[in-house]
Amino acid sequence: MAVSISFQVTRRSSCRYASSAAKRSAASASQRSRRNSRGTGVSLQWARRISCPSDRAPTPPAAKLCRALDGQGPIDTRRRLPYRVHAREQITSDCVIGEHRGMVVLREAHEVSAVLSVGKALSIVESMLQVPGPLSAREIGERCSINRTTAHRLLNTLIHHGWIERHVEGGYHLSAKFLALAHISTQTRSFLDEIRPALAPLSELSRETVHVGLLDGFDIVHVDKIESLEHVGVSSRIGARGITHRTSLGKALLAASTDDFVAAYIEQGRYREPPFTVDAAEPVWESVRRTRESGYSLDDEEDSIGVRCLGAAVCGIGGKPLFAISLTGPSPRFTLAVCDRLAPTLVSVARQLSQRFGGERETGYRAKAGGAQDAV
Q1: Helices (H) and strands (E) in the chain — how many of each?
Q2: How far is CA 274 from CA 188, 270, 271, 278, in A?
Q3: Between 248-256 and 259-269, two packed helices, what is the crossing angle to 10 degrees?
Q4: Tens digit of pLDDT for each residue in 174-193?
Q5: Where are the beta strands (DSSP E) in 84-167?
Q6: Is-contact 282 292, C-beta < 8 A?
Q7: Which residue, 192, 238, 241, 244, is CA-closest to 218?
Q8: How far, in Å, CA of 313 to CA of 365, rounded?
Q9: Domain extents for the chain?
Q10: What does the alpha-carbon distance between residue 265 and residue 237 come to, in Å, rounded to a whole number?
Q11: Topology annotation, domain 191-375
């Protein structure tokens, strides 16, 4: 079997080098491998360092790995040994030596190569989802951190299977298969059913009402809720519209939106009837700034006297806000101190949902172009 392996293995405890006999065995194996590799075009050189406790010889698993690599026994793929690999995982012509939970693992190279290819292909699809127009192979390679040759190979594979198409003006874009996939997904899976399992622990922890809201134009709409576990809660109605710049749901979504959208919201609010009127721009921008800095929004009895709300936005691909979640309770019980205590958990749940819907891993809020002073 032709392999090219370079690895180092050490025990977690204090170690020393293996015996001189093991070193001589490794040297002879290297020479024998070079002789066997002539004319095959495959390098059979390896460098290794196996160490063991100072009070005894190498353990049987390590000795077995030595014999296998010396050509004295078969390499048992997926064999795990109690040694930590210090060298990076390397793909060979027949197997891969890597680390899994502190254990040495031998895997067949074609398995690892297939997994890496699938990951790169999915990264191409995700990058194309983030851009409305077509992308060239060079742009795709830069966005996905892969070379242009690999990008062309993966793109041709995706074109062959009908998931990507060439654009008439040049470049590549997603095919109509994704429209069909989205349609089937909406028919077979409920958006609210998907997010409820993540909201249930939040309800149990806070014991307050959990709301889900999204923007319909410039208004916030309540689309779902989990009732408070307390005897006295806050009454609300699914389908009700709220004032975006006064509710925690709306403030969270404004902060997660672009500055252009916030400016457009303020502008249209100047001409709307009360209570949707925006009297001044600066309080809205100040609220957006605070929410972006903290990662969550606060409605401190602004929308309704006696009711306090805590909100956070859930963002999708490209950081676009999808919906917001909030905790709502009577202000005498849902105090500012309680809000401070529950805010990290709320933000964590919103971040997990954002990751599930393709959003950024770090946070649901991004640095926005422009600022309050630029837009006022």
Answers
A1: 12, 16
A2: 40, 10, 9, 9
A3: 130
A4: 888 887 777 676 666 677 88
A5: 84-85, 90-91, 95-100, 103-108, 164-166
A6: no
A7: 244
A8: 8
A9: 9-86, 191-375
A10: 24
A11: Beta-Lactamase (3.30.450)
* Model pTM above 0.70: no
pLDDT tens-place string over residues 34-84: 444 443 332 323 333 333 333 444 444 445 454 544 444 444 444 444 333
Contact 301, 331 (CB under 8 A): yes
d(CA 253, CA 313): 6
Cis check: omega of the bond before 275, within 30 degrees of 0 = yes
Q: What is the pLDDT of residues 134-183, one digit of tens each?
A: 889 899 988 888 888 888 899 999 999 888 999 888 899 888 888 777 76
pLDDT of residue 168: 86
Locate tokens 């006295």: which residue? 232
Give the distance, in angstroms, between the CA of residue 99 and the centroid of all CA atoms in the same chain.
23
If you compute the radius of gyration of the chain from its CA atoms, what whole number of angstroms results? 29
Q: Which amino acid is at 281?
A: A
Which position has the token pair 């950081």?
A: 319
CA atoms of 50 and 69, how far apart (whole Å): 12
Helix (H, G, I), strand (E, B) or coil at 14: coil
CB 259 within 8 A of CB 369: yes
Q: H or E stretch including 368?
A: none
